[in-house]
Amino acid sequence: MNIKIVDERFGQTGQIQTSDIPEIVAAGYKGIVCARPDDEDPNQPSFDDIAAAASAAGLQAFHVPVSGPLGEGQLIKFTQALEAIDGPVLGYCRSGGRAGSLYAATR
Fold first, then answer.
1. What pTM was computed for the model?
2. Cα distances (Å, whole numbers) of residue 55 to 14, 38, 50
3. Share of the chain above pLDDT 90, in %
């Protein structure tokens, strides 16, 4: 996992695994947002698996899948996720790009 810190509120990274959750918590993140649709790749963990591990570790988890141009609904859901998470947020997708685009578009 290679986290790119965008600012004090947001970082982005590529696909995470359930085993990455302790490191995410230790880095100070309070929530995660997945911008990747399930089943994009055959070995990709499902959002439900990631969310369960995140919840068990005290992180909030939101799914805002992006598979094309960003739409208004995705921007609304992403903004709602940011508002619901009290502290730094880690966004992820295959490479981190879509997560970063969501954040940039809502700034």
1. 0.96
2. 20, 18, 9
3. 96
